[in-house]
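A quick aside before the break. I want you to see a complete sequence-to-structure record at least once, exactly as it would be stored in a machine-readable document. Don't worry about memorizing anything.
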Amino acid sequence: MDSAYEPLDFEFEDPIPISSPPKKRKKLIGLDDLLKDYENEQKRRNEKKSKHNKFKMASDAEDEVDDVTEARLSECVDKCQKEINQINGDEEMPLWGIEVFGNQEKLLQQEHPELKNAILLQSFMKNKINSLVELNTEKAEEFLEGLLADGWLLHLVNASGCLEKPIAKWTFNSMLYSSKVWLMEAACEFWRAVLSIRDEQADSSSIKIDWLPGYSDLKRALKGYGFLLNSSSNFSWDTDMVSASDSVTAGPPQNIRSWIKCVGFCYKTRDANIIVSTQEAEELLVIIISLFLDRQLLGLSMILHEALLSAINFFSDDEWPESCEKIARSLACRLPCNINCLRVVETIVGVDGRSKQLRSTVAFQFLATSLDVKVCDAEEILRSLNSINVKDKNCDLLKMYIYLILAENWILFDTTLKDKAVIYELWGSCLRNCSSVITITDLRSFASNVRSKASYLLQGSISK
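That is the input. The structure line, written in tokens, reads:
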């Protein structure tokens, strides 16, 4: 038991001496050492800069070689593309479009002193409610503008059963000449509603209208807009128009939208006698079709189509055949037979019998005028087409392409030709001539266009 409390062996060993860490001797750096380090650092930087410059020079040399190679490759690609285009013979079709509107006349601010004498305004000023409105003659036009914009003017006219001459003239002029878009649109809607109510209630109590616009009012507005067509002259095809001293701007005015809608209303309400004669109706229809040729009016295509259909349906069954011929001749005389005449034909959508007849007649008249055929006979027209030597190097193949499309629309929509076999024989001969004589290796401009169009039409005629 005593041995358990005895000290262990390692307790009698001498302790391990622990030596303290040696003290570092401070090294003295002299000026020579600093200078040597500085020189070494400068040498290292110079070597690095030299390597960088050598790499940059090598890289620039490689870039120059790449640029030269790229330029040669681009030149080779362009050359190949030109050769491919020559082999294909395809060229871009010229764009349709003419300048229908020139410089607009400076429209004077029209005054309407007769408004203060309108019974409608007089009744308001004499009414007790005027103490709240405080209406006077000086604020008459401003007050009417508010009524027109809010739709109250139509309700008042409908309730009174009478549209007074001063108010009728003021709303009409606001529609066609106002620079305020909201006022122009409100006036246009007002006249649409008035004429619709008058047309619907023709046999019963309708609104009495003391004044209605006439054909001269519509033409006067067009003249103010700078319209370039009249009954005795052709369109101006020059983009640089002669500027008049009283003109302020060029191009279609914002009011042309209301003008087109107004003409459509007038066509729909024949009993209103706004458009009195068939001659006036024919001339307005020609103007509507001509508006399709202005690219700046593409956004109005829908209302133009609506006005066109209203114009076509304006004529009676007895008037239409003769008017259709006159309209087609007028268009063919005023427009040259280029890509624009195809645009004219395409805008006449064949949705019914009359529109199909007009489309066919317009295409025929363009074709006859261009071919200078003295006698407008169907067989004579097609014989003239067959006589064109499309193999001749001087043959204008763009014109031939236009002729094919015009002839297609003429024959397709002319119901009187269905039983005339000789017409279809001559037409098939023309198509076979264009599709076979013009070979695939023909490198002339528009050669492939004529060949492809003729082959397509020939395939369709064979399938029938």
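Two observations worth writing down. The mean pLDDT is 82. The chain is about 60% helix and 0% strand. We'll return to this after the break.
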